[in-house]
Amino acid sequence: MTPPTFLDVDGSRIAVRHAAGTQPGIVWLGGYKSDMLGTKAETLSKWAEEQGRAFLRHDYSGHGESGGAFAEGTISAWLSQSLAVFRRFTTGKQILVGSSMGAWIALRMVQELRKAGDDRVAGIVLLAPAPDFTAELIEPVLTEAQKRDLAEKGFFGEPSEYSTEPYIYTRALIEDGRDNRVMTGPIDTHCPVHILQGLADPDVPASHALKLVSLLPADDVTLSLIPDGDHRLSRPQDLDMLVRAVGAMAGSAKTEQAG
Question: Rounded to whole angstroms, how far apart are CA atoms 144 and 253?
Fold first, then answer.
């Protein structure tokens, strides 16, 4: 595999993999503690290559091949890195594909890009979306011991199903999460959104995806519920659904562009 390109963003060495190709290009945004060589990203990369379509992915600081310490990461920092990578490596229309926390980053990116007068996001595909997960899914269920750890140590650890290392949640991540909330009122993406959500997801309940849909009133929203789908959505049938959703979104964006 070719080594990544590195982009310096605010002193963090961000690893990027970019393949040129037709537009709309696909931009992958991974989840918390995930890296850009995961099953879903690799599947999309292969599909984009077969289609001759541009594909961009990167690792947030403290993730994968990027520099920086994971425990120092915040939504603001990872958002700023994602915007820098997007601006540096993409031209023309793009489709953002965000998995779990990456869905939060995608929604914040659209807000920031539009604020800056950039309307190049032609569509968004979200898998097991976890926007506002710190405020909506973590803070309400903190135990007394976890609250004490946050106050005294500045973090708490949670055993992870996906890794031998515990998941670390820091006070900085939680406080910064409050400043980046998107689910506080109507969300205007100005483009179609397709959400894929497993009903057997133990990490992000389907009710979270339904709440998100209710806040996207102005745009064309498709919600695909996968009865036995878990949080990772990495089984062959899930990957097939992901590729079809991204392909359909790219196809309709292209038609609109031509029209």
Answer: 48
